[in-house]
């Protein structure tokens, strides 16, 4: 295994595609690193804050990999302002059980449809030290899904900084520029390049 190889543990192919774009070698990148995906079922603790959930995932990943293997995981939450942050990290199970239409409808009758998308990345370096990076994007949960249905709740989240489109209506490059994942991985990239 190459020493500059970093393992990204995820079972989510949409995440993996975005992260590969976000960490792509732009030529100027020194030192260079490569990303290898593994799909391990890692525990996602309940009742914990977002940093704890991602840290627990990463600690378990370290235990399952050979000593000295650099690895990162990420956990992404969708937090409704009106519900004091819920569904948060549980959004996966809401979307899976109810479908995105009903997730959007949960806010019907409330004035505040504000939400925050949050990606928390935890990177364990080859010395086994943990580093946490978080990206947050504020937006609105639209009434009716709009755009492609490829990725979870992209079709109901309209970021405040965009031009009124949901994530699912945007080109991937545009989403990456303003997304919570784009922000979190920009921080990881800076760290890997020794700039933070
Ligand atoms: O529309 C979306 N736009 C995004 O940008 C995005 N990022 C994550 N998600 C979904 O939100 C839940 C997070 O749960 P999650 O972080 O535990 O992911 P996961 O279990 O699918 O993968 P992993 O834990 O193996 O990495 C899962 O349902 C993901 O599909 C997104 N949906
Ligand atoms: Mg998960």
What would the keywords be for this entry?
Maf protein; RdgB/HAM1; metal-binding; ITPase; alpha/beta; 196 residues; 7 strands; seven-stranded mixed β-sheet; nucleotide metabolism; binds ligand CZF
How would you explain this protein's 3D organization?
Strands 1, 2, 3, 4, 5, 6 and 7 form a seven-stranded mixed beta sheet that branches. It is globular, with a radius of gyration of 17 Å. The chain has one domain (5-192): Maf protein (Alpha-Beta Complex), CATH 3.90.950.10. The protein has 196 residues and is of the alpha/beta class. The protein is built from six helices and seven strands. Helix content is 30%, strand content 24%. It starts with a strand and ends with a helix. Helix 5 packs across helix 6 (180-192). The ligand O=c1[nH]c(=O)c2ncn([C@@H]3O[C@H](COP(=O)(O)OP(=O)(O)OP(=O)(O)O)[C@@H](O)[C@H]3O)c2[nH]1 binds at residues 10-12, 15, 44, 75-76, 91-92, 95, 151-154, 167, 181. ITP binds at residues 10-15, 57, 75-76, 151-154, 175. Its EC number is 3.6.1.66. Mg(2+) binds at residues 44, 75. It comes from Lachancea mirantina. Keywords: Cytoplasm, Hydrolase, Magnesium, Manganese, Metal-binding, Nucleotide metabolism, Nucleotide-binding, Nucleus.
- How many alpha or pi helices? 6
Strand content: 15-25%
**CATH architecture heading:** Alpha-Beta Complex
CA-atom Rg in angstroms: 17 Å
Largest sheet: 7 strands, mixed
Determine the N-to-C terminus distance: 26 Å
Number of domains: 1
Overall geometry: globular
Bound small molecules, by name, code or SMILES, are:
the ligand O=c1[nH]c(=O)c2ncn([C@@H]3O[C@H](COP(=O)(O)OP(=O)(O)OP(=O)(O)O)[C@@H](O)[C@H]3O)c2[nH]1, magnesium ion
Q: Structural class of the secondary structure composition?
A: alpha/beta
Instruction: Please bin the fraction of helical residues.
Output: 25-40%
Low-pLDDT windows of residues: none
Subcellular location: Cytoplasm; Nucleus
InterPro entries: ITPase, ITPase-like_fam, RdgB/HAM1
Pfam families: Ham1p_like
Subunit structure: Homodimer.
